[in-house]
Backbone:
């Protein structure tokens, strides 16, 4: 009886289990803080994208108007020589820029990762061009590639009168003149990203490879680079975003010339909307640029996140 009475007296003193808050209300302050960013993304980015796509099917001129013309703007777009040339130029510039930026950036990072002398100075020198705007970069390289005052003029003044290096005035290689300026500005950032990835590799991996007698190049290709896959993905996304919106560099260096040999899609959009006062045509070109990005990113996202989820 005494044991039962003591149990009865103790039982009410036990605290009842606390109810856990609903999942929706967890970290409520953080979710409230995200509301402005989410609203901005939905209203500005998604709203602007939908608005652009809708008005690409209209005959909007100086001002937007809902005068539906179906696919006429797209038919006119793909029948324009300037647009076709701009797509070809962007493809050439994009492939070369993506490959060369990754290769040069990784090589520079690998060299700096060897603990060379004056590493800080070299890192600053390589990264400094990224602090400049594309307009400044374009003007600087326009002077450097000028046939009278640039590389060609300097070399000829030294006695090589037959030397020719004038890419910005040659329609066949003008995109490579733009590529030189783009690589000069963007490679430093990719180098720093790669260097951060290399510094995150455990030193025991290098010690083990030296003990096993594995060559350095094979250690990079078989071990280091696969381990840096997220770093390469980040670098590719940054490079691709810069390629798609290529505009300032072209305007500063060539203004699309000689003729229309260095036209790019972003310049075509700006010229159609503000120069030609044809919003419908500019919206159609913008939609095609968006579609090209979606075609590239959606399969990559499905493979990346879908494969990770299945794993």
Residues:
């Amino acid at each position: 009886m005494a044991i039962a009475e003591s149990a009865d007296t103790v039982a009410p003193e036990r605290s009842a289990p606390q109810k856990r808050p609903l999942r929706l209300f967890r970290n409520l302050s953080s979710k409230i803080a995200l509301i402005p960013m989410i609203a901005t993304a939905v209203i500005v980015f998604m709203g602007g994208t939908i608005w652009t796509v809708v008005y690409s099917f209209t005959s909007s001129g100086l001002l937007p108007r809902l005068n539906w013309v179906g696919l006429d703007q797209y038919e006119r777009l793909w029948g324009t020589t300037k647009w076709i040339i701009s797509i070809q130029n962007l493809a050439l510039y994009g492939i070369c820029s993506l490959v060369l930026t990754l290769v040069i950036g990784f090589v520079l990072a690998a060299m700096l990762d060897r603990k060379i002398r004056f590493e800080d100075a070299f890192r600053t020198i390589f990264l400094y061009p990224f602090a400049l705007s594309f307009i400044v970069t374009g003007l600087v390289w326009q002077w450097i590639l000028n046939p009278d005052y640039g590389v060609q003029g300097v070399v000829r003044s030294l006695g090589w009168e037959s030397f020719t290096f004038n890419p910005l005035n040659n329609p066949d290689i003008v995109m490579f003149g733009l590529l030189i300026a783009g690589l000069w500005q963007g490679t430093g950032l990719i180098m720093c990203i790669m260097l951060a990835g290399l510094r995150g590799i455990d030193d025991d991996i290098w010690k083990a490879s030296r003990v096993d007698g594995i060559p350095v190049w094979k250690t990079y290709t078989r071990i280091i680079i696969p381990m840096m896959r997220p770093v390469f993905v980040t670098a590719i996304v940054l490079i691709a975003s810069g390629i798609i919106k290529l505009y300032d560099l072209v305007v500063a260096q060539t203004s699309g010339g000689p003729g229309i040999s260095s036209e790019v899609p972003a310049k075509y959009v700006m010229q159609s909307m503000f120069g030609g006062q044809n919003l419908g045509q500019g919206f159609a070109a913008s939609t095609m640029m968006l579609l090209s990005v979606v075609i590239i990113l959606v399969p990559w996202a499905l493979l990346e996140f879908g494969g990770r989820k299945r794993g």
